[in-house]
Amino acid sequence: MKVVIPGGTGQVGTVLDRALTAANHDVVILTRNPRRDREIHWDGETLGPWADAIDGSDLVINLAGRSVSCRYTPANLQAMMDSRVRSARVVGEAIAAAARPPRVWLQMSTATIYAHRFDAPNDEASGVIGGAEPGVPRYWAYSVEIARAWERAQERAATPSTRKVALRSAMVMSPDRGGVFDVLLWLARLGLGGPVAGGAQYVSWIHDRDFVRAIEFLAARDDLTGPVNLAAPAPLPQRAFMRALRAAWGVPVGLPATEWMARSERSPSAPTPSSC
């Protein structure tokens, strides 16, 4: 199977590239900075020679988008929006123009699209879309709008011969350096992994191997379209989640962060809470 992964040089792309290559699939990466033979340059915004890689492929997994591991300043939030919407739009244009379009287009999205709630889990059918909760932080509301615009870009693409799935993924936990698990474990090791704003908010995640299995499952299931949640069952409150990490490393105490520290220009040490 020929797999094309736009934005495939980040943590999640590295996980998928490693697993799919090991399974003897032909993997091509679209990136702004190609360094290997099977990496092709693209700008994530405009059609170009890179579109030839999509023509005749079997599966496209679009992961492109500015990293969220940064301060949530207005400029960074706008860059997150633009990079996600524009890349999804141009991938759709490439698929629409292909003589032999791929069978499946898996588009990265996020579980952050859901409202934070305690009464029920958020599933694909009855989940509550977030952003309008009383007292919701500005960065969180905008993060939800980014997710909605991200999914709309795929939904509106005219690709009648290609099945489309939006991956509402929780945080992908892998042992790779620089990933979200590496950052959270580093905080726990330093004694900084305490509760954020009380720590009652749920944290959803998915193991990297389960993420790969989910991708393989969705690629094979011709009856699944639209948004699909990718998350481990039974999410933990942030306080309990970080306590488990500290216990695994033998660190008894983690310094807390107050609500005002987590608001406005959010740091990567305070992952956006969501449940699914």
Write the SSE topology:
Elements: E1 2-6, H1 11-22, E2 26-31, E3 39-41, H2 51-54, E4 59-62, H3 74-97, E5 104-108, H4 138-155, E6 163-169, E7 171-173, H5 180-189, E8 202-203, E9 205-207, H6 208-220, E10 226-230, E11 236-237, H7 238-249, H8 259-262
Parallel strand pairs: 1-2, 1-4, 2-3, 4-5, 5-6, 6-10, 7-9
Antiparallel strand pairs: 8-11
The CATH superfamily turns out to be NAD(P)-binding Rossmann-like Domain
As a whole number of angstroms, the C-alpha radius of gyration is 19 Å
Major beta-sheet overview? 7 strands, parallel
Mean pLDDT: 91
Write out the strand line-up for the largest beta sheet, numbering strands in chain order: 3-2-1-4-5-6-10
Strand content: 15-25%
- Low confidence ranges: 264-276
H/E element order? EHEEHEHEHEEHEEHEEHH
Continuous helix count: 8
What's the structural domain tally? 1
Structural class designation: alpha/beta
Shape: globular
What is the CATH T-level topology? Answer: Rossmann fold
CATH level 1 class label = Alpha Beta
What is the correct CATH architecture? Answer: 3-Layer(aba) Sandwich
- Count the beta strands: 11
